[in-house]
Amino acid sequence: VTYNIDCDRAYTIQAAADGYENNSFPIAKTKGGQVNVSADLNPVEVRIKYPVFEAKDIYFEFDKSNITKEAAFELDNLVEAMKKNPELTIMVKAHTDNRGSDRYNQALSSRRAKATVQYVISKGIDKARISGEGFGESQPKVECAPNCTEEQHAQNRRSEFMIVKQ
Fold first, then answer.
1. For the chain, what is the HEC assignment?
2. Model-level pTM?
3. Given 3.40.50.450, 3.30.420.40, 3.30.1330.60, 1.20.140.10, which CATH number is that of 47-165?
């Protein structure tokens, strides 16, 4: 594939193919000329350390439950692994950062779990093979309260994946 791009601007190329893990490839700023990028993709392999499915966590924007482009890119890897392994059943565990009330965060994490599950189902995975639950702020990835940085808050706003059956 060939792209024309602006000079002095960094880019990221995302590559995807059925049966392969999606991946991103950064391209540094240039003053012009041609840049060749080797966008090698690895075949989908289920990475399991029971009971955790080793997919990358997906992250959410502050106070939102919609699936971002970056999250969709990662979820597509999960979908491919589930297609390759029809016995695999996954539970989505969705989380929030510690801003907001416990009640609000519980509801937000439930919406995140639902959005994650719906995305996977929309890609052809049977709804009996994936479920989700919200955990609010009760299981932070990064223990940082009460003085979390924005980056730490972002790491806590996530969905992660547990194997229910394989």
1. CCCCCCCCCCEEEEECCCCECCEEEEECCCCCCCCCCCCCCCECCCCEECCEECCCCEECCCCCCCCCHHHHHHHHHHHHHHHHCCCCEEEEEECCCCCCCHHHHHHHHHHHHHHHHHHHHHCCCCHHHEEEEECCCCCCCCCCCCCCCHHHHHHHCEEEEEEEEC
2. 0.70
3. 3.30.1330.60
Please name every residue paired with 26 in a beta bridge, in sequence order, or none if there are none.
Answer: 12
Domain ranges of the chain: 1-43, 47-165
Give residue-wise pLDDT tens across range 53-98: 666 778 889 999 999 988 898 898 889 888 888 988 999 999 999 9
